[in-house]
Amino acid sequence: MTYGGFLAQNSKTLPGSETPFLDASLLLAHCLGISRTSLLGRMPVALDLEPDGTALAAFGSCMDRRRSGESIASIIGRKEFFGRSFVVDGNVLIPRPDTEILVQAALEIGDAMAAQWRSSSVSSRAGFGATVQEGGRQLRLHDACTGSGAVA
After folding, report:
1. N or C end: fewer C-beta atoms under 10 angstroms in the chain?
2. What pTM does this model have?
3. By CB neighbour count within 10 A (0-12 exposed, 13-18 middle, 19+ buried), where does 62 fall?
4. Beta-carbon contacts of residue 108 (< 8 Å; ≥ 6 apart)
């Protein structure tokens, strides 16, 4: 059996998922300790998991967790957001793709604020989260208690 066949067979066991093949491939790559891209490159290659079955057992456990409704990010312990990888666990909210819209808006507002600060002739400002350093200005924002830190 090839990696592709193995993934196709296992993705069929995730009927509750909207993306069963993606889920299975992310979990298998995680269990093998390789990137998903590397795994996809192995699709036509014969499955060659180690003889002791450690990765296969880990994959089975991960698939059981996914079948029970646990998110891929919770199982893997990482979530990509805005091109960066964040550590996640049960103590933080997992960054959602739609939150990238919030971050994009915040970046645009931040750029506008920075431009305003650069063009301002006022030598001193006081306000929430903003400071001016001697010899120049520095815009500082404070973000606290945000879990994974993805928004910050």
Report:
1. N
2. 0.71
3. buried
4. none
